[in-house]
């Protein structure tokens, strides 16, 4: 079975099937069945993990409490075990570069990219990296409704109405503001002719102006752009792992083939934006581990290799034995002070 099939089965066996076989009210079971529709739409483990993470018991969700009253597991209960079990594929997510111009996609494909799981949601979605706008995803229907979007120039310029709420086309709404105030922001554009048609990916468009009508409506003039898509990754570690795996494959390739590829390879690397997951570590843990080490690497026993330029202290790096990303504790008992060599060895040796 593929990783995503194993991941789906894990969720089904832990949560979905027990819920559907239980004494839950039929109204709640219908919600479980609805979530099954989404589970079957995910093709990558990272997308399924992102879906599970959105559930929060602290929000007093009635479905959560009804399931807990029957001692059933919920998504909130299994998300940590899921992440640990499928950690190897946790960063394998749908990315803008997966979409091919001219190909058809379902609304589910687009919403998974946008991390929005409501099929009745609007047509604009903001993607952020490090808290800043990185891209906007739009799905434009070119017919129906009081404000129909339209081609100003087929495939090249698009008339697209701003996000509105209760008829107010607020320029302060986040997707609108991102387009207006972020120069060069890529707008991943999907269009369909009618509400019953599949969406077609039209490529990356860019802001070319805003038009304000007398009735209060507003629309963007969006222009097709030819530049290379910018990938948005969920975790910077994915980049390092990908390079390591690709290097290993290259090393076992006959040298002649590798040299042939190098002769035609681009001299400029592709650009990406990275959304990193960081942990707010306890500084007392770091200080206590460094105090315990007393200037010696707790891996090889050698003295710290140099002093810090900033304050002249002996340079050692505090490493968690069980990584925080794998559920390790931020405690003195789970941390050791290592020289840079031993630290790299602990990760890659």
Short descriptors:
single chain; 349 residues; alpha+beta; PUA domain-like; 4 domains; eight-stranded mixed β-sheet; two-stranded parallel sheet; globular
Second rung of CATH, namely the architecture of the largest domain: Roll
Distance between the termini: 30 Å
Per DSSP E runs of 2 or more residues, the count of β-strands stands at 12
- Written as H for each helix and E for each strand, in order along the chain, the element string is HHHHHEHEEEEHEEEEHHEHEEH
Total of DSSP H or I helical runs spanning 4+ residues: 11
Number of domains: 4
Overall shape: it is globular
Strand content: 15-25%
Mean pLDDT: 87
Task: Summarize the structure in short.
The protein is of the alpha+beta class. The protein is built from 11 helices and 12 strands. The relative contact order is 0.08.
Written description of the protein model:
It contains eleven helices and twelve strands. The model has no long low-confidence stretch (mean pLDDT 87). The relative contact order is 0.08. It has helices spanning 3-20, 26-39, 45-53, 62-69, 75-85, 107-114, 174-181, 236-251, 255-264, 283-293, 340-348, and strands at 104-105, 124-129, 132-141, 150-153, 157-161, 187-192, 199-212, 218-224, 231-233, 272-274, 317-320, 335-338. The protein folds into four domains: 3-89, no CATH class; 96-231, SRA-YDG (PUA domain-like, Roll); 234-274, no CATH class; 283-348, 3-Layer(aba) Sandwich (His-Me finger endonuclease fold), CATH 3.40.1800. Helix 1 packs antiparallel against helix 2 (26-39). Strands 1, 2, 3, 4, 5, 6, 7 and 8 form an eight-stranded mixed sheet that branches. A two-stranded parallel ribbon has the order 9-10. Helix content is 35%, strand content 19%. It is α+β, with helices and mostly antiparallel strands and 349 residues long.
